[in-house]
Amino acid sequence: MRRYFGVAALVALLATGSAFGQTVTKPVVPGVTNFSRLESTIACAGATTPAGVAELKKLGYRTVINLRQASEPGADVEAEEAAAKAAGVKYVHLPVNGASPDPAMVDQFLAAVGDPANQPVFVHCASGQRASAFWMIKRLVVDGWDAEKAGTEAAALGLTSPALKTFALNYAASHKK
Question: Which CATH number belongs to the domain containing residue 82 in this structure?
Fold first, then answer.
């Protein structure tokens, strides 16, 4: 009986570790709001200044994917792109409307994050909501994670928007491999 409980406890511990995915760390990065590093190949965040792009280069990021629309308050797409060019960082702008995301932007996002030449990748929007929702889609569609595991990780990255979570789940359901 004692042995049974020991085995059951070990199984529960192992299942818990795999249920939550990668560990999210949140170091402070000057010029970057809500920075969340997930693993060696990805980080998600909110608003990022041109000076923040230089900091990302110092941290080893090779590509910046900006999900902000140029019309958003505080967004300076041109200055951010110029900062990326000056720092020698690839810049990808995929303008996503948070209230009505375009699935075509997700397709482009998945291609960009899936290209080993772009890694490590830094993805951001204004608050981190769209960035974490798009990463959740990657986990569901590309990595084959279940919704609970991907949702838990996305929440750790900062996803709190029910609408964006629903978009992610719907996109994944219609794009399962």
Answer: 3.90.190.10
Going by pLDDT thresholds of 50, 70 and 90, the confidence category of residue 21 is low
pLDDT mean over 85-98: 98
For the chain, the farthest-separated pair of C-alpha atoms sits apart, in whole angstroms, at 66
Q: Is position 76 within any domain? A: yes
Q: Mean per-residue pLDDT for 31-45?
A: 93
pTM (2 d.p.): 0.87
Task: Give every CB contact of residue 146 below 8 A, 6+ residues apart in sequence.
Answer: none
Alpha helices in the chain (DSSP H): 2-19, 50-58, 77-87, 103-114, 129-141, 147-157, 162-174
- Give me the number of domains the chain comprises: 1
Mean pLDDT of 138-146: 97
**What's the rounded Cα separation, in Å, for the pair 163 and 40?**
29
Domain holding 28, by residue range, is: 22-174
CA–CA distance, 25 with 42 (Å, rounded to integer): 11
Facing residues of 45 across strands? 124
Average pLDDT for the chain? 89
For residue 120, whether the previous peptide bond is cis, meaning omega lies within 30 degrees of 0, is yes
Within a domain: residue 9? no
Q: What is the pLDDT of residue 45?
A: 97
